[in-house]
Every structure is written in structure tokens, then in C-alpha cells.
Amino acid sequence: MERTYIKDLVGKIGESVRIAGFVDIRRDHGKLIFIDFRDVTGKIQAVAVPSHEEAHEAAKKLRPEWVVSVSGKINKRPEKMINPDIQNGDIELEIESIEILSEAAELPFEKDTELNLDTHLDYLPLTLRTDKSKAIFKVQAHIVRAFREFLTGENFTEFQSPKLIGEDAEGGANVFSLEYFGNKANLAQSPQFYKQIMVAVFEKVFAIGNVYRAEKHSTSRHLNEYTSLDIEMGFIASHRDVMRVTNRLLVYIASELRKNCAEEFKLLGSPIPEVPKEIPAMKLREAQAIITKETGKDCMKEPDLDPEQERFLSEYAKNNFNSDFIFITHYPTSKRPMYAFEDPEDPNYTNSFDLLFRGVEIATGGQRINDYEKLVEKIKSKGLDPEKFSFYLQAFKYGMPPHGGFGMGLERLTAKLLGLHNIKEATLFPREINRIDNLLSK
RNA sequence: GCAGUCGUAGCUCAACCUGGUUAGAGCACUCGCCUGUCACGCGAGAGGUUGCGGGUUCAAGUCCCGUCGACUGCGCCA
Fold it and tell me: Which helix (H) or strand (E) is A18 found in, with range?
């Protein structure tokens, strides 16, 4: 018999059906055995009764996570047994036969109970099956889909950036060097140079891929491998054009999440943010003036914000502009990479921005230098050797439009959207110095 | 890398501050009973080198030192 998905059973009352899926939980009353089955579309309660002797015997053996194919009849539940709080609470499957496709060992803990993060990570192949994890990664999948959909609709072209790159790293974060290449190649810490090169090919491009940071950071918002959502666009007037696209992109993502993931957000107890039509923006120095005035701590000379100040500014944006988001612009030239475009009105600052969301930085972007001579000069002034960047520099040597873009951390965005405390909860298989799956088997 | 907190049954925790007989609970597991549960219920049972190493003490899960690991925060970043 053809398999029926569990979500479709409600229209099959009185019919014989076959479902396939997992045992979610079993409640054995002796003569009556209740089993909740789940497949990718949902859950349903089934009941094994003694009159179907063979099926009843099989039902006794079933345990959580066994994989089965079950045939039976869909019955309307008696009035008193209707459970309005759950999916398919008004019907049940009367089991007529059970085929066991795969047995499961005794679970180390009950599925869907609260676990320490460490235990959760030790048992990912099992814990990713929980309702909570499924909700998190469904939301993440929809963020990626919406990102891709929006940009494709805006005539951006998606491309694959290499993850093995040469020594011409942009500086900043430490890179993993690769022994195979005589330590002259690294894992990419960003697709930055490649997306700029691609601007001269397709004008507007985006890339979704892993990037690698060799930092021994141990925080709730850092990973050695994460997914970067990157865009780069040509023919902009300034970083403001990039911010406007970022803004509209976030509006689109939020609306798609509202359409497709309302249940998941409800389960995780986090509100889907309202993205303002115009996300508030202020220059770094303005933000610091506010912090200095409000907290009494003078930070006017600092080149960047610390995490506490980022949290403060997010609070400030919420209270004063009713926004979960705020752009901070014009970071000092000294703190930005060599390709950062200087503010024409004050070359000590750059046409750059960070986007803060619920207390953390989720994106960084800005306008890039597109003039060849200027870029070479800037590389030198940062104490770097232009020779090392000669491949990258070809893009500028042979004509490059004014351009800019941003990089956004997918896992950070996911975690913050869903109110998760640790970024590892928003990462399927998090990599860090003490954890790469079975490298750490005990 | 630094700082703080933590590490006890398969899981989540109690007992630690104030050292003292046999280290407890809930869930999971095994066995028995149960025809309306949906976190099913009831009864019984099994399950521990208290992360590891050292020290203090008549006596250490408990106090001290070291070490390994985790979490939180910081630096750096997305």
C-alpha cells in the first residue's frame, strides 16, 4: 500500500492507510498500547488492541526511535478522547500490522527533555531529532531560502567562492594554514576578495558558504566554522545603498518567516521581529556620545564598541526607535581593512557599517575602494605587500565600478532571532578547538 | 589566552557552605498489574571508583593544590 504522510491522515477517516516513520513515545496499558508515531510532516497517536493479535505483540516490543511501517484504519476518536491541544488530536490510527524497518538502542535520555549543551552536542545525531532542534534548523533553512530568493529577485547572481585560498588574506582574523600546500594556502576567512572580483563580472552577486576563523575564542557567539551570507553590489553611490538593500532584505526575511515558521517561533518562545522600513542609523561617534552621556563612562576615543556597549545601543534603539535593529556607521579607518572606502568628508573614518540586532553584531559591511592606485597605496599604508595581492588587484587594474557589500553571520542571526543563548544551538555541527564530532570520542 | 562558576547514576539534579554509619530524588531501563492514555498510572528491581591525580585529617562527594573538560563573561570578530 502507498505510504500516506501523517499530515494527510485527517482526510482519511474510515480508510485503511499505511504510514512510515519513527516511534515517538509509547504508553503501554497492557491490553491497550498507545504509540505516537512521527514522520517529517507530524505526529499521530496509534492504538494497538488485542483483537489484532500479531500487531499487538509487535507493539509491545516497540521503543522510542524504532523505525516502522504501520498499516491500519483511521478512526475518529470518541468524543471524550479528543485532545484539542495536539496535531491529529481528533483521530487515531488503529494498528493492524507493524513492519519493523530499524530497531533503536535504548536512548541515553528521553527525547525532548532539557539537556546541558554539552550533552546535546555529544549526541547530535539523536538530539537534532527533537522538536526544538527541528524548529531551529527549519527556521535557519527558511532564512537561507529567503535570502537567496530576495537577492535573486533583485538580479543578484549567486556564486560559489573557494574555501582554499592563498596567502593574500585580508588580515584581521587568524587563518588556518594548510600543510598540504606547504602552509602557503589557508582556509578562507571570508569570500571578500572573490565577491569583489565577481562584481566586475555580474555587477551584483551573493554567496552562501562556510568561512573559517582560527581564533581560540570561547564565547557564546563565536565558532571556528560558520556560514557567511555575503553580498556585493556594483554602481553604488555610498555604503547607504548597501544599507538600504540590507534593510529590504531583512524585511523580506522576516515576512517569509512569519509566513512559514510561525509555529517554530511559538515553540521556541521568541517573537519574529518587526523590521522597520528604515532601520535607525547613527555614526559610531554619535553612538559613543550617547553612551558617554547615558552611562557616564567616556568611550569617545575607543575605535570600536565592546559587547556591553552593543547591548546598550540595542536597548537604546528599542526604547527610542522601537527597533530591534540599528546600524552603526563610520568606523575609524585604522580599524577597518585596507579595502574600506574612506568617508569623503573625513578620511579618518570609513563608509562602513555594522548592523546590531538584539545586542550583537550580525553583519558588517560598507563601501570598498574601487580605484586601483588608491587601493595599492592603502595596502602599503597598512604595512602589507601589494605583490601578494596582485591576483586580486587585477580586478581593479582592469576596471572596477564603485561597489560595496556586507557579510552576515547565519548562525548568529538564527540564534538571535530565536532567543538562543549559545550560537552552537543554532549550528548543526559546531566546530571548535575541543569539538569536531568523533575526534572527541571518549 | 584571561577571569568566574561548575563537574555526583544513562539524563536532569540534591547532599558540599558547616567533613562523620549504607551518597539520594525524578525521568529512562528491567519485571509484574492495568481497555482510553496523550509527561498514562500503580508496585517491585537493577543502576555510583562523586572527571582524573595529589594533599590535609582519625575520617573527604564535602576542605586545599594540580590537571582535564564544560558553561558564562572578556579580548577578537560575523
Answer: strand A16-28
Could you list the pLDDT tens digit for every one of the 442 residues in chain A? 999 999 999 999 999 999 999 999 999 999 999 999 999 999 999 999 999 999 999 999 999 999 999 999 999 999 999 999 999 999 999 999 999 999 999 999 999 898 999 999 999 999 999 999 999 999 999 999 999 999 999 999 999 999 999 876 665 568 888 888 888 889 999 999 999 999 999 999 999 999 999 887 778 888 999 999 999 999 999 999 999 999 999 999 999 999 999 999 999 999 999 999 999 999 999 999 999 999 888 898 889 999 999 999 999 999 999 999 999 999 999 989 999 999 999 999 999 999 999 999 999 999 999 999 999 999 999 888 899 899 999 999 999 999 999 999 999 999 999 999 999 999 999 988 878 876 544 4
Enter the pTM of the model.
0.94
Sign of CA dihedral A240, A307, A433, A438: negative
Cα A148–A336–A319 angle (5° rounding)? 70
Q: Please check whether strand B approaches the CB of A424 to within 7 Å.
A: yes
User: Please, which positions of strand B sit below 7 A from a protein CB?
Assistant: 1-3, 10-13, 27-30, 33-41, 69-78
- Å between A55 CA and B42 C1'? 26
Cα separation of A192 and A205, whole Å? 12
